[in-house]
Design a protein that fits this description.
- This protein has 357 residues and is of the alpha+beta class.
- It folds into two domains: 208 residues, T-fold (Roll); 93 residues, ApbE-like superfamily (T-fold).
- It has eight helices and 15 strands.
- The N and C termini lie far apart (71 Å).
Length: 357
């Protein structure tokens, strides 16, 4: 005969103190046996660069599956945004330049071109994805170690200008934007914005799979989520300008943000005693000669990627002013050496990301 515990006339349908205690023990025990978060790391070449994922998950199989989903997404983006792949969506669009053809855009290419247009308009073309003809000339210049011929620069100039990319809404859900490239011989180059977008989309994949503590990087640029367990942020180091009197590297705690660094430290050419960057000024077609390293921190990988090139071209005075007026939440550090003078500038909020001394 079952024993029914009652006290002071309480109903049998009211949970007893013993029942509540047992329930509490079960709940606590379940929490205690939950697997701890473990750090996993993955690396793979993507978009012509070394990409790296660091994430925290509760088992290896789950971590591996999520990493594969990230690699698949980046590979898909490369097939859309690459100017190296002649069969990419971007390359096919460039081949229509001057034809008057209106081309329906996939979601990713449409988003990137729309953001590029916005930043180009705000900066009066200091950032411009139509610089492809100039970039091709400077790639040859680095190989041959000689300046691009003046006549070829002049010919390229006729095909460069952000206003030559006409975007319009279509009302089609699968292809919400269409583009027309109005000048002949245009070549779009998303090298200043596509990597940041890829990192941003990689972070989206991680979050969609329930991974919130992560760092994903490509060529040194990164997007990070929540910090590692027990840490205030992801500890990263911003490299110093490669000159003898440069200030030391800066150490930062990052969380829920993106970081991009641009400069001529690794990609440059010296011709006639002048050091030219791989970053080309869209207004002149000439590689930058102010030896510089620009680091930006902000909410969106795509946006800070493009803005880092913009600040490199405009310099800190005009560049920081534009950030303050149009891009709240974006902070910047700019180290450069025009001529023989070393300059170090930063926006007022940059120091809030630094590791305390």
């Amino acid at each position: 005969m079952p024993v029914r515990l009652q006290t002071h006339g309480s109903s049998s349908r009211v949970p007893s103190a013993w029942g509540l205690l047992i329930l509490l023990v079960v709940l606590v025990t379940g929490c205690v046996h939950r697997a701890p978060l473990v750090r996993y790391e993955f690396q793979r070449p993507q978009m012509g660069l070394p990409f790296r994922i660091v994430l925290y998950a509760r088992d290896a199989q789950r971590a591996t599956n999520v990493a594969e989903a990230v690699w698949d997404r980046i590979a898909d983006l490369n097939s859309s945004l690459s100017d190296y792949d002649e069969n990419s969506e971007l390359s096919r669009l460039s081949r229509t330049s001057g034809s008057g053809q209106r081309v329906l855009l996939g979601w990713d290419l449409g988003i990137v071109l729309q953001e590029a247009e916005r930043i180009s308009r705000l900066s009066d073309g200091a950032f411009d994805v139509t610089v492809g003809p100039y970039v091709q000339l400077w790639k040859r210049a680095r190989r041959q170690r000689e300046l691009p011929p003046a006549d070829r620069l002049e010919a390229a100039r006729a095909s460069v200008g952000w206003q030559f990319v006409k975007l319009e809404s279509t009302g089609i859900s699968a292809h919400p934007l269409a583009a027309t490239l109005t000048q002949p011989n245009m070549r779009l180059d998303l090298g200043g914005i596509a990597k940041g977008y890829a990192l941003e989309k990689a972070a989206d994949v991680l979050r969609e799979h329930g991974i919130t503590r992560f760092l994903v990087s490509g060529g040194g640029d990164m997007v990070v989520g929540e910090p590692p367990p027990g840490e205030p942020g992801w500890r990263v180091e911003v490299g110093a300008l490669d000159v003898s009197n440069a200030p030391p590297a800066r150490k930062l705690w990052l969380k829920q943000t993106a970081l991009v660094t641009s400069g001529d430290r690794f990609q440059r050419v010296e011709i006639g005693g002048v050091r030219y960057s791989h970053i080309v000024d869209p207004h002149t077609g000439i590689g930058l000669t102010d030896h510089s390293l620009v680091t930006l921190i902000g909410p969106r990988g795509m946006t800070v990627d493009a803005l880092s090139k913009l600040v490199s071209v405009l310099g800190p005075d005009r560049g920081f002013n534009l950030l303050e007026r149009h891009f709240p939440g974006v902070e910047a550090l700019c180290a450069r050496q025009p001529a023989d003078r070393l300059e170090l500038r930063e926006t007022p909020g940059f120091r809030r990301w630094e590791v305390p001394p």
